[in-house]
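Chain A, query sequence.
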Amino acid sequence: MSTINNNPKVTLVGAGPGDKDLITIKGVEAIKQADCILYDALVNPEILTFSKKDTPCIFVGKRFNNHKFSQNEINELLVKKALKLGHVVRLKGGDPFVFGRGSEELDYIESFDIQTEIVPGISSALAVPAIQGIPLTKRGISESFWVITGTTSNGNISKDIKLGAQSSATLVILMGLRNFSLIMEEIKQSRHKYTPFAIIQNGSLPSEKITIETINNYKNVIDEIDYSSPGIIVIGDVVTEHPSFLDEEIQRVLNHPF
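Chain A, predicted structure.
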């Protein structure tokens, strides 16, 4: 007969964009105290070394067409482990409330009267462009930025991409690489053809890769995208702030003279 823990708790922890050193101190402290950890595909496994020696760490990651657990199964497992073991840490890449379904999980857990806590994480939407020297806002260039999903629950691009393209804001698109061409064609309808964009994959990790082009030439980079790696798309004039932008522009002119 299984016993029920008298102090069940689930802490939702944002693991940051990838680099294990970019998790918050509060997040590390939660991991150290955890009796069980459920972690996602975008979490750097090195972060798990902060846990106690015998803490069970369960991979529940979901990537494109490869879901080890459904969302309902993850919800149920969080409750089951909390009731049995005590303090469960739900470790999610970036920030749990930025396209992380963290709110859905909390709603389910709290319906069982289980205590919850939230430890925010650094979202890749903010950190990854910054690491590359791309500001999302800059006086005289961009007054705001939009963070938009590139793939909705039905697989289509978000309608907000069209609205964002009509603004002057910097656009940061997450989970958009598989719909890259559709997104670029939508952006072209409203932005000038020389608007620069950057694709940044494996942000904050040693394998980080950035590709810079203009929306008029987006087809030139399609074959360079590694669809097995996570990435973000940054669109807007702030991309010109990247240290290599001028060099790449010069090479484009030399290779494709008017």
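The first helix runs from residue 25 to 33. The longest strand covers residues 9-14.
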